[in-house]
Amino acid sequence: MDVTSIVVAAVAAAGVGLALLGGSTRARRLRQRDPLKEIRQEAAAVHKSPQGLIQEMELRLYDFGRGAEARIENHLAVLDRLIVEADREIARLEAILAESRQGLNTDRPLSRSEQQRCFAMWEAGFTVEEIAACLTTTATQVQSALDEWRKPDERAA
Hints:
mainly alpha; 2 domains; 6 helices; rod-shaped
């Protein structure tokens, strides 16, 4: 073998050795590298930057807004249910009131105590309709009782 072949073989062997050494060095560096740690470091760096702080505040504000909106929607739903229940109760009470007013339309004579209350309420300034509602009778009955009460006064005059 001549010297040139030996030198070429040695250079080739050195090139292959360096290539293998470089590949193993890169492989060792890749094995030692922790991508999760790098991501955490990058996130911490971004988090500490002014832009990162602004983004974090925007996210917090957005989350707070969503929470407030959800609470408001819940309150509105509760209020809607209460309104429906109140409407039902109003309808029930109106029905009871209508039934009780039907009983008022009976023409019955006023008792002596009812007549006295009627006179007292008239003197206090109540109208005939208000007195009739309080005594659960008709306005015509109250008016006739008041007319009878006034007649003795007219005779005396």
